[in-house]
């Protein structure tokens, strides 16, 4: 008896778990003096901000820690690569399989709203910190170990959520464009049963069905 193929949820979970473990081992093996603060470093709110990687790498290089600087730059590149690859892979998977949504439109919109809000908050906080008359230096934000501790799990979470959202987006787009009556009917039935008749996904599915109905 052949084992059932892994679901998209399971595949993405395995990928981000492997990323977190492997990168964590790499940092533990190659990182040196990661608990020693970087002197004179102004606070950076998140590794996701545009200039954070450059600022942190430059600060590490200026303090004579080229190995840690290279390790941080590599970790940031791998993290962004994971997010981009899983989002692209999720979209392609959704387009090719045209299956049921895995996260759902309602949850996807909730996650996107939360992420946009967090990014906006981070931007406001960072701008506020940079405009302080005297910027705090040498506190917890200057400890490289905490940079990695924040980067690895957050990248894993963002990559998986992004992959699930992209999967659903791809599936809905191809179903709407191809307009197969049977598949659209399945989408409507599945959305109403699993998400609820009044859910955003069910309303969207019914709208797609109405748009693709023969005139």
Spell out the helices and strands N to C. HHHHHHH
Instruction: Round the mean pLDDT to the nearest integer and report it.
Output: 88
Task: Tell me the Rg in angstroms.
Answer: 22 Å
General form? elongated
Major sheet characteristics: none
Please give the number of β-strands. Answer: 0
Helix content: over 70%
Structural class: mainly alpha
Residue stretches low in confidence (pLDDT < 50, at least 5 long) are: none
- How many structural domains can be distinguished in the coordinates? 1
Tell me the strand percentage band.
Answer: under 5%
- What's the helix count? 7
Oligomer: single chain
Distance from N terminus to C terminus (CA atoms, Å) equals 47 Å
Q: How do the strands and helices of this protein lay out in sequence?
A:
Elements: H1 8-30, H2 52-62, H3 66-97, H4 105-130, H5 144-178, H6 181-194, H7 200-212
Helix pairs in contact: 1-3, 1-5, 2-3, 3-5, 6-7
Transmembrane segments: 12-31, 71-96, 108-125, 145-177
Keywords: Membrane, Transmembrane, Transmembrane helix
Characterise the protein shown here:
- Keywords: Membrane, Transmembrane, Transmembrane helix.
- The chain crosses the membrane at residues 12-31, 71-96, 108-125, 145-177.
- The protein is mostly helical and 215 residues long.
- It has helices at residues 8-30, 52-62, 66-97, 105-130, 144-178, 181-194, 200-212.
- It is elongated.
- 31% of the residues are buried.
